[in-house]
Amino acid sequence: DAPKVPDSRGDSDGPRRGSLCDRHCAAINNVQGDLGDLGCHLHRPRVPPATSTPSCCQQHSEEVCESCVVKTTLTAENAVEANKLSNNYKFGFKKWKSHVTARPWEDRSEIVKELYSDLNVIRGSGGSTLTCGNVLYLLLFGWWLSLLYILVAAVMFITIMGAPYGRLCWDLAWYFLWPFGKVIQKVEVPKSHQACEAGVGESSALLGGPTPLRWCPRCWVGTGSWHHASTAVWLCLGYPVLVLAHGLVCVTAWLLIVLIPVAKLSARATARVLLLPPERVLIRRLRMTEVPLEGEVILCCYRAANPYYYKYAVDGINVFAVNLLPLVLVTLVLGYVDSPNHLTGSAVKFTLALLSIMPLSYYIGMAIASISAQSNFAVGAVVNATFGSITELTFYITALIKGSREGNRCYAEVVKSALTGTLVGCVLFVPGLCMVIGGIRHQEQWFNSRSAGVSSALLFLSVGGVFAPTLFSKVYGKLVCGECHNVTQNPLGHYLCHNCHFDLMDHNGTLYYSHVQPLVYTVSILLPAAYLIGLFFTLKTHTHIYDIHISDCHMPGHHHSAVVHWSRWRALVILLLSTLCMSACADLATEHISPILTNSTISQYFIGVTVLAMVPELPEIVNGIQFALQNNLSLSIEIGNCIAVQVCMLQIPILVLFTIFYPTNFTLVFSDLHVYASMFSVVLMNYIFMDGKCDYFQGTVLVMVYFILLAVYFFAPSPSGC
Questions:
Q1: Any idea where the Sodium/calcium exchanger membrane region domain is (predicted)?
Q2: What mean pLDDT is predicted for residues 521-538?
Q3: Bridge partners of residue 74, in order along the sequence
Q4: How many CA atoms lie within 13 A of 568 on its CB side?
Q5: How do 72-75 and 548-551 pair as beta strands?
Q6: Cα 382 to chain center, whole Å?
Q7: How far apart are CA 304 and CA 306, in angstroms?
Q8: CA 600-604-609 angle, 5° bins
Q9: What CA–CA distances, in Å, run from 334 to 320, 399, 597?
Q10: DSSP 293-350
Q11: How would residue 667 be classed by pLDDT, with cut points 50, 70 and 90?
């Protein structure tokens, strides 16, 4: 609430009006959500200068209560972030949670600052070092790394000339056995040796501090052939072995993510500690009442694990996407080099190709968000429309091409299952999961029912248009069954038939070519047209339905220029390369899916609606969960709705257009199971979203219905022709 202002006879309505506006603002704040890191600042009423607090958007306070009631203002750090936030609320644009620009260091939380801090900061009180993460370090790395240092120390002592380095390795053996609460310090050097250190100092994102650019023999303490020989022995016998060991520790700890401090520790030890002369390295244990040490602190670690490292990013790229990027290279090498399957089988290659799609989807999404945030509306709309569905379309088209070449109708059925699985998953599972996870933190969540209503109307229209040819074929098609048995042994009795389907090619395909196919082409033209009308409605004529205003103003004292992670050209190059790699991975997935479809006991329906449909959407699901945790459920719901609408209004018409130029077995006639599952999902979603609020119970209902449909697909028999 605003500060209470003493009532005055001359302006008795002022405080009352301000209190009413504050209540409206508080209600809108609950509806729109606490956007946390984005910084949600609402318009506040004008109060006397003695009690007013400075706000970054006071210039907008003329229409105080009216603007407050209808708008929520989100402030961003810069204009680029403001464009990105604005694009999140535009229909048809990709919703992206992560920042596309570097955030100011002072705006970050203490938890995030600790993730990027160097391991050379001495705390006043580090607390107990006996933690689960430190014990895990001892079991995984500490014992064998310490043993290796002891062996290297023995070798150095045997060579006699390497005895100083042997003493250093002996001390480091006990340090790396349990490095927590200990410090490695660089001893000050005489002024005569400081000149050769002028060329040292290069920052590294991984090490978090300076690293030597070159090795200068004059920097070593002392002169003469003895010191040169000792250094040569160390660089030939001891240092390479320890570099390999620390490299293994660094890679393993980095891949485990929560142990990234161990990776920093190993990298910093390799590049700094092991390249110093033994006389300049001092290892000591810190005491609770230790005064600040004199000299440079190279290493000081208190914790081996930090669970918040899932937030860690390298050049704006989340650490999970960074770690999964080598998987793409492994997949491409195994897929195209080991074509005869000598090293691995088709199941392994199919799994690797499918997993490789996840990081590529992330890079495509971030590239689209970066280009859109740095460009005007027209460029952003073109990029989102062109590459927004590139992940799914790449897989569908490659599967249809392979099925056409082999004359196998099973690939077309798998594509239909994947389309239906994406539609059902984005309508039920994505919003339901976001409601459940967001409901754990927030008892009741609100969302913009008007914007959700636009997506729901388009979903009804798109589902009706997509399944119109299917319903037409059910009414006018001829039912053909594979085999029938007389149950009652009476010619006029009941018959039990198997493998029944509606034949559209009766009488030389007159029904299909004269009626069904023109209907398919008509629907494929009308659906994209309806999508464009929806874009024009939400982005041009009725933008006010989102009740949002994005501002790039800042808090007092915070004035930062935008430092983008990816420039437009860099984002464009990454987008094209990711799309190319996506095509290669999709080709490998379709190449090695055939043994799984033929030899697996699981229904092809289930494989299509689960694995092939939802794996490419995992980055979108993560974005939706992050929005829900910040009480911004509107964007979580819009993520699922936009994908479902794009499946029906863009992806399916594009596949129909593709079959015109490249004939395949794909026809816009779905099985009854797909029709019923899709229509029931859309109806249920609209019923849940009717009142504009939800909780974890309603989300649980959506998730449970989704799993029930998965069970139906799991026990369903394989489609005919597979």
A1: 348-467, 571-713
A2: 88
A3: 40, 550
A4: 10
A5: parallel
A6: 22
A7: 7
A8: 125
A9: 22, 20, 21
A10: PSSEEEEEES-S--GGGGG-EETTEEHHHHHHHHHHHHHHHHHHH-TT-SSS-HHHHH
A11: confident
Residue 330: its pLDDT value, please? 92
Cα torsion at 698, 700, 706, 712 (round to 10°)?
-120
The position carrying tokens 């909780």 is 695
Q: Does 33 score more than 50 pLDDT?
A: no
Residue 508 scores a pLDDT above 60: no
Residue 92 has pLDDT above 80, yes or no: no
Q: ∠ CA 485-486-488 to the nearest 5 degrees? A: 145
CA atoms within 13 A on the CB side of 207: 18
Q: What is the pLDDT of residue 481?
A: 66
Q: Return the H-helix or E-strand segment holding 486.
A: strand 483-486
The type of residue at 363 is: Y
Take residue 583 and report the two structure tokens written for it: 């095509």
Higher pLDDT, 717 or 155: 155
Q: Which tokens belong to 170?
A: 């002996």
Query: What was the pLDDT predicted at 566?
Result: 87
Confidence band (pLDDT; 50, 70, 90) for 640? confident
Residue spans of the domains in the chain: they are 115-187+229-308, 312-488+495-715
Listed range (218-227, 391-400, 521-530) with the worst mean pLDDT: 218-227
* Rounded CA separation 511/505 (Å): 7
What pLDDT sits at residue 287? 66
Rounded distance, CA 681 to CA 712, Å? 14
Contacts 24+ apart (CB under 8 A), 21-24: 21/45, 21/64, 21/65, 21/68, 21/69, 24/65, 24/68, 24/69
Considering only the C-alpha atoms of the chain, give the largest distance between any 2 of them, rounded to a whole number of Å: 112
Instruction: Tell which CATH architecture fits domain 312-488+495-715.
Output: Up-down Bundle (1.20)
Query: Is 243:183 a contact under the CB 8 Å cutoff?
Result: no
pLDDT per residue as tens digits for the range 130-161: 889 999 999 999 999 999 999 999 999 998 88
d(CA 245, CA 239): 10
Angle, alpha carbons 593-599-605 (nearest 5°): 65
Strands 296-301 and 281-285: unpaired
- Nearest-angstrom CA–CA distance, 697 and 717: 32
Considering the chain, what is the average pLDDT of its residues?
Answer: 77
CB-based contact 719:410 (threshold 8 Å)? yes
The set of long-range contacts for 240-249, using a CB threshold of 8 Å and a minimum separation of 24, is: 241/148, 241/152, 242/148, 242/149, 242/152, 242/169, 242/270, 242/274, 243/270, 243/274, 245/145, 245/148, 246/145, 246/270, 249/141, 249/145
Instruction: Enumerate residues 6+ apart whose C-beta is below 8 A from 630.
Output: 33, 34, 35, 36, 37, 38
Q: Hey, is 211 helix, strand or coil? A: strand
In which band, very low, low, confident or very high, does the pLDDT at 27 lie, cut at 50, 70 and 90?
very low
- Residues whose CB falls within 8 Å of the CB of residue 534, separated by 6 or more in sequence, listed in order: 91, 92, 454, 458, 645
The residue that leads in pLDDT, 90 or 264, is 264
Question: E strands along 67-137, which residues?
Answer: 72-75
Per residue, what are the HEC states of 371-383?
HHHCCCHHHHHHH
541 pLDDT more than 80: no
pLDDT band per the 50, 70, 90 thresholds, residue 546: low
In the numeric block, which tokens belong to residue 245? 């060991």
